[in-house]
Amino acid sequence: MTYTPQLKERGYYENRYDNLIVTQCRMMEDTHNLLREKRLKECNWLVDPNEIAWRMHVLEELEIYFRKWALAENRDKRIAEWMEEDLEIDNFYEKTTINTPYCIYCNNKMDLFFKDLNVWYWKKKSRILFYFICEPCKYKRGVWDNWEEYKIEKNICELCKSEDTKTRFEPWKESDVYRTICNSCSHTKEEKWEHYKGQTKESDPDYEKDRERFVLTEKGLYDFQDSCRRLNNFNELHVKINAENLEKEEGKVIDKKILDMSDIKDLILKELKKFKYTDILLWTPSIKKKRVYIELTLFGKNLIKDEFIVQMQWILKNTNWGIDEKSVQIQLGILKCHLEWE
């Protein structure tokens, strides 16, 4: 019997993990649908069911999105674990041997017929069964890798209860058939084992569509991680600004730095470079209603208005300059705003 290695190409494990993601996300969607229907049935006439359905839908999408992200982040690690497990099984099969036993009837040395790998993945356990045969007397014996004797269960006829039966194995294209025939009453019992076909377009026509919906690409995962990092930076700046505002409210005097045009230009160019904008431009100042304004233009990717405002508030803290929040505009990777003399 030819041994089929457990370790396969990486693509096999990638498809296996994608199938895991699709299965879990589908289960979440089914659960959400059931809960939403139950919640809408319980709504009274004072509550708008459309509003409830919309809110639940938003929360459901968020939950699935974070689940997709968690699974995508763990993808390479889990695939590596699967490949390592299968490699260990292959090494175990190749290295495990036992001494050839002698026949208990004629005392001749038996021949190894084949060895069979048995894997219980849910138990994380592997065992090898060695089959031996004695050529002179045709005695057969099965032994596990720990020398535990393999016990063959006898096939008993369903009708006459006779133990005088024989089993034939018949491989077919769609399935394998085990046919047990009773030598006493000729009763035949047939067991059919269907071959596993896996996921196919015919058996699951929505699989590829759901795979695109639920499986994050490398770019999708990077964008999500980048958004999380930006959000963390935004929160840190926000906390610092709130702390300083609290200090002001408590009566602590903070001296303002009086910056002229050259000073404010140097400060902005120095600090904004820390946030990885691709280019920064400061335009000639203008005076409107006895107030001095400077137009600031930035170039970058994934620009977020609220995040930029918090950054500028942090840079201009304790100075005589501030940002006109209403002037902030973002379009096609370009951000424009006005800084004003306070």
Structure description:
The protein is an alpha+beta fold and 342 residues long. The chain has three domains: 10-88; 97-194, no CATH class; 254-341, Gyrase A, domain 2 (2-Layer Sandwich), CATH 3.30.1360. 42% of the residues lie in helices and 24% in strands. The chain contains seven helices and eleven strands. The protein has helices at 10-42, 49-73, 75-95, 207-214, 218-249, 261-272, 305-315, and strands at residues 111-120, 125-133, 140-144, 165-171, 175-182, 188-194, 279-282, 286-288, 291-299, 321-331, 334-341. Strands 7, 8, 9, 10 and 11 form a five-stranded antiparallel β-sheet that branches. A hairpin with a 6-residue loop joins strand 2 (125-133) and strand 3. The longest helix is centred in the first third of the chain and has 33 residues, at 10-42.
Helix coverage percent: 40-55%
* H and E string: HHHEEEEEEHHHEEEHEE
Shape: elongated
Radius of gyration: 36 Å
The first-to-last residue Cα distance is 86 Å
In percent, how much strand structure appears in the residues? 15-25%
Number of strands: 11
Give the count of structural domains.
3
Coarse structural class: alpha+beta
The largest β sheet comes out as: 5 strands, antiparallel
Low-confidence stretches: none
Helix segment tally: 7
Q: How confident is the prediction overall: mean pLDDT?
A: 79
